[in-house]
Design a protein that fits this description.
The structure is a single chain. With about 270 residues, this protein is of the alpha+beta class. The protein has a single domain, classed as Deoxyribonuclease I, Chain A, CATH 3.60.10.10. Helices cover about 20% and strands about 25% of the residues. A six-stranded mixed beta sheet has the order 3-4-2-1-14-13. Strands 5-6-7-8-12-9 form a six-stranded mixed beta sheet. Strands 10-11 form a two-stranded antiparallel sheet. Strand 7, helix 4 and strand 8 form a beta-alpha-beta unit. Helix 4 packs parallel to helix 5.
Length: about 270
């Protein structure tokens, strides 16, 4: 099973840059996107060449992505946040939000269930202006994973907006008081791992330095190349550790983030 997580920073902008061809060519089994940043109707039209009259599971359109089941959680805040999951395998069920544990109007969480797997697509809030909101979300995610692990193997992917260790960002000293690398955020990430989860990329690449976010400004102002973070992750239940055969961060230019991928022999 090939899984990709990718903060696309706006589906309209990323599709203009060629995202649809990239999705079709890479041919992952499951794509988890964050920051859709538009309503579901428009997102369907942009990505899947659908209009509002086409059913969710109607693949009769000519979209190259017609083989995927699409699950949009675009939220209610125009042009903001939102998650989207594409799966070749039709899930047994889908949960939007985290049930009674957490609900928001920003479309931050979508979970699909395939057999004994629960795959969470999560967009953790940025803590620059809403640190308290971010920490409450992370606490809820921790509880949600705990509950799921009672019956499922869990894969939790997304933009966590946390650089876990010094190896995961370019300026750890300058960022020690900055949201993305605050001790309280890093501790929350530790607590997720302590639930019995493994960071797929770091598991297979313990010393490799790669980042999943860099400023758009770096394309025209090279001084911004010094600010890079690894903040996008594919976490998996420890029981799946031996099944993770590959994990990497791809260098493509459809967003200010980069996609993280993992292969699981499942």
């Amino acid at each position: 099973m090939k899984i990709m997580t990718y903060n696309i920073n706006g589906i309209r902008a990323s599709v203009k840059l060629g995202l649809k061809d990239f999705i079709a060519d890479y041919d992952a089994d499951i794509y988890c996107f964050q920051e859709v940043r538009c309503n579901e109707k428009l997102a369907r039209e942009v990505l899947l060449d659908e209009n509002s009259q086409i059913s969710l599971f109607d693949t009769s359109n000519n979209s190259p992505l017609g083989q995927y089941n699409a699950f949009f959680n675009c939220g209610e805040v125009p042009g903001y946040a939102g998650t989207l999951t594409l799966s070749k395998i039709k899930p047994d069920k889908v949960i939007y939000g985290m049930g009674e544990i957490w609900q928001d109007n920003e479309g931050r969480t979508t979970t699909i269930f395939i057999g004994n797997l629960a795959i969470i697509n999560a967009y953790i809030p940025n803590g620059n202006s809403r640190l308290d909101f971010k920490m409450k979300y992370l606490s809820a995610l921790n509880k949600f994973i705990q509950n799921l692990k009672e019956n499922y193997e869990v894969i939790c992917v997304g933009d966590f907006n946390i650089a876990h260790n010094e190896i995961d960002l370019t300026n750890p000293k300058e960022c020690k008081n900055k949201s993305v690398f605050l001790p309280i955020e890093r501790q929350a990430f530790d607590e997720l791992l302590n639930l019995g989860m493994v960071d797929s990329f770091r598991h297979l690449n313990p010393k490799e330095i790669k980042y999943s976010w860099r400023s758009y400004r770096s394309t025209y102002d090279k001084s911004y190349n010094s600010w890079k973070y690894r903040i996008d992750y594919i976490l998996a239940s420890n029981n799946l550790k031996s099944a993770i055969t590959y994990s990497d961060i791809l260098d493509v230019n459809y967003s200010d983030h980069l996609p993280v991928v993992a292969n699981l022999q499942k």
